Amino acid sequence: MFHTVGRTLEGMSSPSAAEATTGDVIAAFARHLRAERGLSEHSVRAYVGDVATLAEHLGLEEDSPPDLGHLDLATLRAWLANQRSRGLARSTLARRTAAIRAFGAWLADTGRIEVDPTQRLRSPRPDKHLPTVLGIESIDSLLEVAKELATDGGAVHLRDHAVFELLYATGLRVGELVSLDLAGLDLGERTVRVVGKGNKERVVPMGRPAADAARLWIETGRPELLGDGTSQALFLGARGGRMDARIVRGVLQRLTALAGVQDIGPHALRHSAATHLLAGGSDLRSVQEILGHSSLATTQRYTHVSPERLRSVFAQAHPRA
């Protein structure tokens, strides 16, 4: 089993090209992704894992010098076919291809290979599955359950209520939410300052319910979990450290069961927020800014779910409606 993923994320010092092992090379690639491409830690881990998968396919040993002489297009296609045979989703295959392309370009740029064969590797088109979206009534039921649980004044319940009010209000990615610090929240202006993909900062508004839930958590629940600690994290785990995204997913699974709504992941709250904003009349450009999408085409995925809005706009605007 190739264990490079854990090692690459520890900031090892750069070895010389002559003495580098496969693990060292992938570690250097991880540093490149962070420092020069500005990828989030989540994305770095995903890319490194994909490269480690290719290394295993090539038979490269973690602690041996990397023999990249047989890295050619035929080998890459065989690797991709192997990945496809495992039944992976097209979106996963597309990401793995993107990771390998980034790796190949970096190898060529740093002189570790003479020619980059990865640029001719065709990426599978991602499935155009429509995102999972909860209706407004289901969202209300979910948040009401979280609010009801928080009436006991327990720190964890206060936290969970604030977490899901904020996720739905702002459309944040769960990784962005758990990375928030206290300083990023402005309850007076009801805004959140978020550092998203590519280290791009954006300021996202929130509604009064989310601000009220966050204030109650900060003033009442957070000090109880923090104890004598000094964490600047907005949301804390049971031991006082920064809350983990996996905890958010687990809590949401329990809440959906209690609320009797569809079992969803945190990302569905982001999809739902975007959908409801557009259905309520927000323009695509504004929703793009709120979600932190680099491309407007990504935001356009949500436009299909509001035909009533399209009919309304048509009736109001078209002279022959």
SSE order and pairing:
Blueprint (H helix, E strand, L loop, with lengths): L3 H5 L13 H14 L5 H18 L14 H13 L4 H20 L26 H15 L4 H16 L3 H5 L6 E2 L4 E5 L5 E5 L2 H19 L18 H15 L6 H14 L4 H8 L4 H4 L7 H11 L4
Antiparallel strand pairs: 1-2, 2-3
Helix pairs in contact: 2-3, 3-5, 6-7, 6-10, 7-9, 7-11
Provide a descriptive summary of the structure in words:
This protein has 321 residues and is mainly alpha-helical. It folds into two domains: 4-120, Orthogonal Bundle (DNA polymerase, domain 1); 136-307, Intergrase catalytic core (hpI Integrase, Chain A), CATH 1.10.443. 55% of the residues lie in helices and 4% in strands. It is built from 14 helices and three strands. Strands 1-2-3 form a three-stranded antiparallel sheet. Helix 3 (41-58) packs across helix 5 and helix 6 packs across helix 10 (245-259). It is globular and about 60 Å long. Residues 1-16 have low confidence and may be disordered.
List keywords for this structure.
14 helices, DNA polymerase, domain 1, 321 residues, hpI Integrase, Chain A, 3 strands, mainly alpha, 2 domains, globular, 3-stranded antiparallel sheet
Radius of gyration: 23 Å
Which structural class best describes the helix and strand composition?
A: mainly alpha
Would you state the CATH class of the largest domain? Mainly Alpha
| Beta-strand content bin | under 5%
Major pleated sheet: 3 strands, antiparallel
Shape: globular
Percentage of residues in helical conformation: 55-70%
User: Helix count, per DSSP?
Assistant: 14
The CATH homologous superfamily of the largest domain corresponds to Intergrase catalytic core
In the CATH hierarchy, the architecture of the largest domain is: Orthogonal Bundle
Low-confidence stretches: 1-16
Number of E-type strands = 3
Overall pLDDT: 83
Sequence of secondary-structure elements? HHHHHHHHEEEHHHHHH
CATH fold annotation of the largest domain: hpI Integrase, Chain A
Terminal CA distance: 64 Å
| Total of domains | 2
